[in-house]
């Protein structure tokens, strides 16, 4: 038996609900003869009588009563399916995979944005992944991620577009008891770190911030003495807390606190800030990704 057309089922359900073919035709905005043909076609297809014609209307048969309940449920599911597809086309339902660096996750902007995204679009399931900027870019190109918050502008990577989101000052993380850990209220000139031991995160993981720190040190007249590299920023702070050296980190890293660590702001002439970018693939974005991008821009504008 061929699949029953939804328009025949809809016509049948409307007639049963109205109990009258003329009123059902008016409700369906069709003429009575086409409606009668739809009902006859449905009975012929099923090989049973569904409606008993009465002088002043119609009455459903026992077989028709069973079909009525099943058809009404099927039509409701079909309507939900249609709505789901339309929501997906508007970017309101589906799935998105978002990546972020460990330092980006600590900036209030990112968790607040994700919370707002969930509240505005509860039909979107979100997969989150934390990695270094380089790994996130690779995941974007391989289509394992749809969007990523990174610290590197990634200029020149074919297939990716990167939009600036915000910029925050960088600060110095010092071991407790360090000679520079005393006057915490005074901005620290970067040149004061010329002879200090630096702990940085590995360049492939944090290329943008790594290069920015080196460039700022060179402007201040020295090359930093890097004694240790860590795979992630939290690991960098752990090494600072252990007294192995100091580090320069985004200001939001202060939220991690850390035993044995003192934070100091840098003097303005250091010109050292930590930008945050939204990275996307250049290929035409899905409605879901485009809605996310628009929400990022709106949140930036409102902050």
Task: Give an overview in words.
This protein is of the alpha/beta class and 303 residues long. It contains ten helices and eleven strands. The protein has helices at 6-18, 21-28, 32-46, 62-89, 102-106, 109-120, 133-141, 207-219, 233-241, 287-302, and strands at residues 51-54, 57-60, 94-100, 124-130, 147-150, 160-175, 197-201, 225-230, 247-250, 261-265, 273-281. Strands 3, 4, 5, 6, 9, 10 and 11 form a seven-stranded mixed beta sheet that branches. Helix 1 (6-18) packs across helix 4. The longest helix has 28 residues, at 62-89. It is rod-shaped and about 105 Å long. It starts with 5 loop residues before the first helix and ends with a helix. The relative contact order is 0.14. Keywords: DNA-binding, Repressor, Transcription, Transcription regulation. GO terms for molecular function: DNA binding; DNA-binding transcription factor activity. Belongs to the LysR transcriptional regulatory family. This is LysR substrate-binding domain-containing protein.
Give the topology, please.
Elements lengths: L5 H13 L2 H8 L3 H15 L4 E4 L2 E4 L1 H28 L4 E7 L1 H5 L2 H12 L3 E7 L2 H9 L5 E4 L9 E16 L21 E5 L5 H13 L5 E6 L2 H9 L5 E4 L10 E5 L7 E9 L5 H16 L1
Parallel strand pairs: 3-4, 3-5, 7-8
Antiparallel strand pairs: 1-2, 5-11, 6-9, 6-10, 6-11
Helix pairs in contact: 1-2, 1-3, 1-4
InterPro entries: BudR_PBP2 (IPR037410), LysR_HTH_N (IPR000847), LysR_subst-bd (IPR005119), WH-like_DNA-bd_sf (IPR036388), WH_DNA-bd_sf (IPR036390)
Protein name: LysR substrate-binding domain-containing protein
Keywords: DNA-binding, Repressor, Transcription, Transcription regulation
């Amino acid at each position: 038996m061929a699949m029953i057309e939804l328009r025949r089922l809809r016509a049948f359900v409307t007639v049963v609900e109205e109990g009258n073919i003329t009123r059902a035709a008016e409700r369906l905005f069709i003429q009575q003869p086409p409606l009668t043909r739809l009902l006859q076609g449905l009975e012929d297809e099923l090989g049973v009588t569904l409606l008993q014609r009465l002088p002043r209307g119609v009455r459903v048969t026992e077989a028709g009563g069973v079909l009525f309940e099943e058809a009404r449920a099927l039509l409701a599911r079909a309507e939900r399916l249609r709505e789901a597809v339309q929501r997906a086309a508007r970017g309101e339902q589906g799935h998105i995979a978002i990546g972020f660096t460990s330092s980006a996750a600590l900036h209030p902007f990112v968790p607040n944005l994700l919370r707002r995204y969930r509240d505005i679009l509860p039909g979107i399931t979100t997969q989150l992944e934390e990695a270094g900027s380089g790994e996130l870019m690779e995941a974007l190109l391989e289509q394992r991620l749809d969007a990523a918050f990174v610290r590197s502008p990634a200029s020149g990577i074919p297939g990716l577009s990167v939009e600036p989101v915000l910029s925050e000052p960088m600060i110095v993380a010092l071991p407790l008891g360090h000679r520079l850990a005393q006057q915490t209220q005074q901005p620290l000139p970067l040149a004061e770190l010329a002879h200090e031991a630096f702990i940085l995160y590995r360049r492939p993981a944090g290329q943008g911030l790594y290069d920015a720190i080196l460039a700022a040190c060179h402007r201040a007249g020295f090359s930093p003495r890097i004694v240790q590299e860590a795979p992630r920023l939290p690991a960098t702070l752990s090494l600072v807390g252990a007294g192995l050296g100091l580090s320069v980190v985004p200001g939001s890293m202060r939220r991690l606190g850390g035993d044995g660590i003192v934070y100091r702001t840098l003097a303005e002439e250091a010109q050292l800030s930590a930008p945050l970018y939204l990275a996307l693939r250049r290929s035409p974005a899905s409605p879901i990704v485009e809605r996310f991008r628009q929400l990022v821009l709106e949140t930036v504008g409102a902050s």
